[in-house]
Amino acid sequence: MQWRQVQAVAAKEFRDRLRNRWVLAVAVVFTVFSLLITYFGSAAQGQIGPRSIELTIASLVSLVIYLIPLIALLLGFDAIVGERERGSLDLLLALPITRLELLLGKYLGLAGALTLSTVSGFALVALLLYQRFSWAGLYHYAGFVLSSVLLGLAFLSLAVLLSVLARDRTRASGLAIALWFALVLVFDLLLLGLLVATGGQFGGQAFAYLLLLNPADIFRILNVFSLDDVQRLYGLASILPPALSQVGWLGSAMLAWIVAPLALASWRFRP
């Protein structure tokens, strides 16, 4: 594999997203919603503006869990199948470039656009938190933004996998929306339903580890369940096993969700 070809494909994909103002649109959406949540998230308690960095992050988690997976899936679902439908895939593969280089270049270009839009969208909130909590607040917030980027990259990997597996853009888009519903909305409901149906006897501590089967839940554990203030507020310390409070272990699980679907897509995309 030659990285020059990978970089060329990635640069073209990134420039295309900048040219059609996709990055700008997503950054504006994140900026508006994150500022609204930061300013008015405590309005029910009679306060405007962030009360604490932990509760601010906990409020922003809901925004990220719903929006970033959806945006990542919609961004990448036609990365390969779209080229196939337009008839440009055979032309690209006729060039001195391998399928792995094309796939990786596509992913890296889309990942760069998604990362730029995410970081830009949360930049104004970072300035607000710095004015309120100084550098101590930015330390926790930077971890939140990094985990948000990793969540987007994980769902982007899943989107590229769907793009390789699907026969046309219509099926790919349908699978992307179905996957978003399954992982963001349905997965936790099924686990809770199973827990209630078995009277709390299902799984024990193994029940908590089932959350690792969903990158959205890994993100939630990293940013909500690991916060001391939130654990005390909701009594979560007695639910999660100690291993799930280790950032390095959870980060490795998130990286696995990025690498594994991309590796499977590369295997399936082979001639």
UniProtKB/TrEMBL annotation:
The keyword Transmembrane applies. It holds the Pfam family ABC2_membrane_2. GO terms for cellular component: plasma membrane. Signal peptide: none annotated. One of its GO terms (molecular function) is ABC-type transporter activity. PANTHER family: ABC TRANSPORTER PERMEASE, ABC TRANSPORTER PERMEASE PROTEIN NOSY-RELATED. This is ABC transporter.
